[in-house]
Write a structure and sequence with these properties.
The protein has about 400 residues and is mainly alpha-helical. Helix content is about 65%, strand content about 5%. The protein contains 19 helices and five strands.
């Protein structure tokens, strides 16, 4: 999709993002698509229905990404966040994933689910989103009166030295197996085989095959992640007969543009990207706190607004909108603690159950697989501990 001006191309990206996120919010609410709920059903009841829906979304996004990259429609090597970055920050992926898994269990839902519940009238989720956004913002932006972020103060000195620099230049499975020269073909084979194996496992269950909501949720979420990858990768601006990506245009703004009017505050937010919700909650808080300034309006901000709006509309149409408040002081403390852990963990791990669990894994990034495993493990262990404590109290 080519445009004559940056403003036109950016506007299409932002409003398309909102529309896709709106569908995500409505469908996730309608089908009760919930990654924390998926782990809970599996651990506590042995029911894998929603877990299979989650992995159906992963398979669809993965198969779509490797196919589009092989045909040259998209290129995710320089995505935001840098899932395939040249440094494997395995310790951050692992610790962040564990923290996020614990946090989403205590807060009754992951980042996406918190936005869904907020759109459905859950005031508890408002506090969760606010706390997550505040921590995520200061994990990536300097604290007031300082040049240090929460990440640089608390985590960087002891976690970042553990990172491993990849000789292939990227950490995805294709690059690790075949190097940069053969990465695209290797991704097609690896992603194709892995995606088909996941689909075989997903549809092996007769109960899953008979549940339309789980199938609908998995298919739509997977396609939505893929759609966002395609849209953010394919928008270009023509300058002197040559097409430039939005990122390329913004990085050469002084050369291409006549003034600073419309210049985005951060060009990284114009890279190829898809849905993730922890860092965008921080972006949204910054956007609101700055007085809704257009330079701070990003893909992530529109994604947050779109999911909430879609969930709200579906809740009203289906008459499921309900105002919910904390049941007790213990419930309040649990949600606050969970939100804190999600804020720290989501940024450390470079994503949430959607951001790493589907979007990141679709790129075949090794760090994304580590984060996904850690999130599931953190959530499952927390649920087991909660069950033990409940039985002990009983």
């Amino acid at each position: 999709m080519n445009f004559d001006s940056f403003a036109q191309a950016q506007s299409v990206m932002l409003w398309t993002t909102f529309a896709i996120a709106f569908i995500l919010g409505a469908v996730a609410n309608k089908t009760n698509f919930c990654t924390m709920g998926a782990v809970s059903d599996w651990v506590n009841m042995g029911d894998t229905g929603r877990l299979r829906a989650w992995f159906l979304a992963i398979a669809i996004a993965m198969l779509g990404v490797v196919a589009l990259e092989y045909t040259g429609k998209i290129n995710l090597d320089g995505s935001f966040p840098p899932y395939r970055g040249g440094q494997l920050i395995w310790a951050e992926n692992l610790l962040g994933g564990l923290m996020f898994g614990i946090g989403m269990t205590l807060a009754s839902g992951c980042g996406n689910k918190s936005l869904i519940r907020l759109g459905g009238g859950n005031i508890k989720s408002f506090f969760v989103v606010l706390i997550v956004g505040l921590i995520a913002y200061y994990m990536t932006n300097p604290l007031p009166g300082s040049d240090q972020t929460l990440f640089s103060l608390l985590f960087m000195p002891w976690l970042r030295p553990l990172a491993v620099t990849m000789s292939s230049g990227h950490q995805d499975l294709g690059s690790l197996v075949a190097g940069s020269a053969g990465a695209v073909k290797a991704r097609l084979v690896i992603g194709g085989v892995l995606g088909l194996l996941i689909l075989a496992w997903v549809f092996r269950s007769a109960d899953f095959r008979s549940n339309r909501d789980n199938i609908l949720g998995g298919v739509v979420v997977g396609l939505i992640v893929l759609a966002a990858w395609y849209v953010t990768s394919s928008l270009t601006v023509t300058v002197d007969g040559q097409a430039h990506t939005l990122l390329d245009y913004a990085q050469q703004w002084d050369f291409f543009a006549n003034s600073d009017a419309g210049k985005p505050a951060n060009s990284r937010m114009l890279s190829a990207q898809s849905f993730t919700f922890i860092n965008p909650m921080g972006q949204t808080l910054g956007y609101v706190a700055a007085g809704f300034k257009n330079p701070l309006l990003t893909f992530g901000v529109m994604a947050v607004f779109g999911v909430v709006a879609g969930s709200l509309v579906w809740s009203l149409l289906s008459r499921r909108f309900r105002i919910e408040w904390f049941a007790s002081v213990k419930d309040f403390i649990s949600h606050v603690l969970g939100a804190v852990l999600m804020g720290f963990g989501g940024v450390l791990a470079l994503g949430c159950t959607i951001g790493q669990g589907i979007t990141g894994v679709s790129t075949l990034a090794l760090g994304s697989f580590i984060a996904l495993f850690a999130i599931i493990a953190g959530s499952a262990i927390t649920m087991k501990i909660q069950y033990f404590m409940m039985m002990r109290e009983g």
